[in-house]
Amino acid sequence: MKPFIKYAALAFSAVMFSNAYASEDAVKKALTSAMPTAKIESVKTSEMKGVYEVMIEGNIYYVSEDGKYLLQGHLIDLKAKKDLTEEKLSAEQAKLAPERKKDLEAIGENNMIIFKAKIKKYQISVFTDIDCGYCRKLHSEMDQYLAEGITVRYLFFPRAGKGSESYNKAISVWCAEDRNAALTTAKQGKNPENKQCKNPVDAHMALAEKFGVKGTPMIVTEKGNVLPGYVPAKQLAQALASGE
After folding, report:
1. Looking at residue 217, what DSSP letter applies?
2. Can you give the pLDDT at residue 244?
3. Is the model more confident about 56 or about 144?
4. For 2-58, how does the pLDDT look when each residue is reduced to its tens digit (9 = 90+)?
5. Are residues 8 and 128 in the same domain?
6. Domain at 116, CATH number
7. Across all residues in the chain, what is the average pLDDT?
8. pTM of the entire structure?
């Protein structure tokens, strides 16, 4: 390659990279302005021309290069018949799973309310809100989970926040003489006896925030993978048997 052509090519490449970074910065700036509380983890070009892939709190979104439009959904490669978004989310899960597992071990089972299967095959940790409808549904089917050999370990995540009615119920349940029975009663819509004691509720909430919990129930498998929302016992057992 002649020197002039070589240097021109290098200069062109430098401009292209500079423009790419400028666009990434513009997208991040636009998102920060529109969603100041969002934790933007990364901004990079996507497989679709003119659209950027943005990771926000463990979720993937797509944003136009001018930062005006945001798309929520999955990007599909029609030719290859691949869900590109799902592949990347799975990779992100795999990357974060060991840390989640380590964090749960640090909290310790002595700081959880545990419903033990007689013959344990699997174990899940569930972030729960006493007043959440689907949390109550999951708990009402506890016998089905236990019958599938699934031990359920509960951590509290009152979505209304510290000082809320759900938060106070969580503390009262923890401080009850029989925590398992008190939790079952509370999940049935009955107010637990108001009690105060040293409790791990704040630690649960801090861990939930670290895990990016947005809704409840949120299930974390023994491997540290996340299954958001309510999952019926048999379906959950199948997922856990497949290596989740």
Report:
1. -
2. 65
3. 144
4. 444 443 343 333 333 334 444 788 888 888 888 888 888 889 899 999 899 998 877
5. no
6. 3.40.30.10
7. 87
8. 0.72
Using the predicted structure, report yes or no on whether residue 65 has a pLDDT greater than 60.
yes
Query: Is the domain of 231 the same as that of 133?
Result: yes
Domain around 36: 3-73
In order of 6, 41, 170, 207, the CA distances from 105 in angstroms are 56, 25, 21, 12
Q: Are 158 and 205 in contact (CB under 8 A)?
A: yes
Residue 232: CB partners within 8 Å, gap ≥ 6? 141, 144
Long-range contacts of 64-73 (CB under 8 A, 24+ apart): 65/23, 65/26, 65/27, 66/26, 66/30, 67/26, 67/27, 67/29, 67/30, 67/31, 68/30, 70/31
Instruction: State how beta strands 150-156 and 122-128 pair.
Output: parallel
Lookup result for tokens 């637990």: 192
How far apart (Å, rounded) are the C-alpha atoms in residues 155 and 229?
A: 15
